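Whiteboard transcription, Tuesday session. T.W. wrote the structure tokens on the left side:
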């Protein structure tokens, strides 16, 4: 009977399998390293790109903040200019009030009445003066009530006084200034325009 020793052949196969296992393990390690390096590179690229975007956004936000500060400063300047414009417009609108007031008071003042002072607070005027009698004060109030520029005469006080050895009535009278209505102003402008046209046609 022939005996064949298979131990060397089996040992050779074990060595080949072991070698293949080591080679496959090394390849897996290398492949895993390559995959890890690739993933790291990809994520590093994403991170650097995101950091670049964040830096860009920060710079743009800083620019927008500067623009907001500039807009606020411009708004403050605009508000200040509008306030000045309103003051100027109010002054221009009321600069003729004093002239109208004194003209109307001169027209409304009856004989035997003269003023000592006139004080204006807003649209209200306080008149202080002397009259020969209370009837003259009533006459003054009627004239003021009939004036198109003055309205709401209210007698505050009447008392006896002596001026140049004469007994007179010292009165305090409150009067309101009536603002011209826009409709009236428009009508006056409309009337003035045809009149000017007629003058040109001649």
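and on the right, the sequence the group agreed on:
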């Amino acid at each position: 009977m022939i005996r064949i020793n298979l131990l060397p052949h089996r040992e050779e196969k074990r060595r080949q399998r072991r070698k293949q296992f080591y080679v496959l393990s090394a390849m897996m390690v290398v492949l895993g390293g390559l995959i890890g390096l690739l993933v790291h590179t990809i994520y590093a690229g994403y991170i650097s790109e995101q950091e670049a975007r964040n830096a860009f956004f920060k710079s743009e936000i800083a620019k927008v903040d500067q623009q907001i500060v500039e807009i606020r400063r411009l708004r403050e300047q605009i508000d200040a200019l509008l306030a000045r414009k309103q003051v100027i417009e109010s002054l221009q609108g009321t600069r003729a009030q004093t002239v109208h007031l004194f003209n109307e008071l001169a027209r409304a003042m009856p004989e035997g009445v003269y003023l000592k002072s006139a004080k204006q607070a807003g649209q209200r005027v306080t008149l202080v003066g002397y009259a020969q009698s209370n009837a003259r004060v009533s006459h003054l109030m009627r004239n003021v009530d009939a004036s198109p520029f003055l309205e709401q005469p209210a007698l505050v006080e009447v008392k006896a006084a002596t001026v140049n050895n004469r007994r007179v009535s010292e009165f305090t009278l409150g009067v309101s200034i009536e603002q011209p209505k826009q409709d009236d102003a428009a009508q006056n402008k409309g009337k003035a325009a045809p009149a000017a046209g007629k003058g040109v046609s001649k």
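Someone added at the bottom: The chain has four helices and four strands.
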